[in-house]
Amino acid sequence: MSPVAFAPVGPAAPAETVPVALSLQDLEVYLPRADDELQILHGVSFEVPKGSVVALAGESGSGKSTAALSAMRLLPWGARVTGRILADGRDVAAMSRDELRRFRAGHARIVLQDPWSSLHPMHSIGGQLVESARSADPWLSKQQARELSVEMLRRVGLPDPETRMTAYPHEMSGGQLQRVLIAMALVARPQLLLCDEPTTALDVSTQAQILELLLELNREMGLTIVIATHDLDVIAGIADRLVVMYAGRVVEEGPTAEVMAAPRHPYTWALMQTAPKHNTGTRMRTIDGRPPALDALPPGCAFADRCEFTVDVCRTSRPELVLIDTHTVHRTACTRVQSETGGATAAIDAPLEAS
Ligand SMILES: Nc1ncnc2c1ncn2[C@@H]1O[C@H](COP(=O)(O)OP(=O)(O)OP(=O)(O)O)[C@@H](O)[C@H]1O
Ligand SMILES: [Mg+2]
Questions:
Q1: Cα 151 from chain centroid?
Q2: DSSP letter string over 202-270?
Q3: Quick check: CB of 249 below 6 Å from ligand 1?
Q4: Mean pLDDT across the chain, nearest whole number?
Q5: Is 60 in the pocket of ligand 1 (CB under 6 A)?
Q6: How much is the CA Rg of the chain, to the nearest whole Å?
Q7: Cα–Cα distance between 176 and 354 in angstroms, integer?
Q8: Distance between CA atoms of 295 and 192, rounded to whole angstroms?
Q9: What is residue 195's predicted lDDT score, i.e. its pLDDT?
């Protein structure tokens, strides 16, 4: 069927002991509804190596925020979770209330999609920053926490940070609040930072400034970052590894450059075709159709109805996420790619013929 000669799978890479900052293992999340519950995540597994930047990509509703919130045990009341979440080897589900408070105050921080959900409307920006810094490090004096807060406001690009300290959330724009939230996370000097669409509300130059700051913190201080975003430019510019989600599942995962240049899942391939052309500012194409409703997932591949490469088996058998490159640790959940490449290499636009 394919004109491409497939490279064989190489020998297994030597077992490197890269420390893992965050590991999601077979995570299933169910949220309560009036009479039953709805499964949001289906066996989501991926690892975030310490000191790396990992991006979560996928269309709206694919489960990016749910995965990030699960890692912090911040899901809505009544959520049921199975599987494991390990942060620095510690089981997040098993943490006592006190351990969890310390974990969220200092070890891991999350910047949420909606700034208003994380800021107290009646407290000044400075007060909230100082509290954030001191919740992570109770030994910081108020003065030290204040200095750190001003410094972080400056670093996220807010002009006149001294004056901003006395402002209240309602006095700031959405983009400014987004930067305040990032500063609020960073004053805690966390080891792990989860960012949920942290730059969506920002103009292009502020976005670039924030990404530069995150990269600086990552490269210079070893901050591990997980970033959920729709923005392929952001992903290309910052992420070491990319996790592509679709309808509550991971469909592809691997090194960013490799996944973007040579996707091994038709959904990733389609997603890459949506990237704006830099010279014209226009989008090349959109992905036709919509993801299936989470309470009506098909028995086979959830992407089958929208996929240009679908064959019969895709509709009947659900593909597992399988390792296709042991050296780069690249996984895909596409039956056709797995079978036609013998689990090996060739990119999606090469090996598969549209059916
Ligand atoms: N509190 C909730 N109650 C019910 N359903 C929810 C809740 N939160 C999320 N969902 C559903 O779970 C699915 C995954 O949502 P999630 O917010 O994780 O997706 P996402 O990939 O972050 O999307 P977006 O790109 O729009 O932020 C969606 O179908 C959403 O409607
Ligand atoms: Mg989201």
A1: 27
A2: S-HHHHHHHHHHHHHHHHHH--EEEEE-S-HHHHHHH-SEEEEEETTEEEEEEEHHHHHHS-SSHHHHH
A3: no
A4: 87
A5: yes
A6: 21
A7: 46
A8: 33
A9: 94
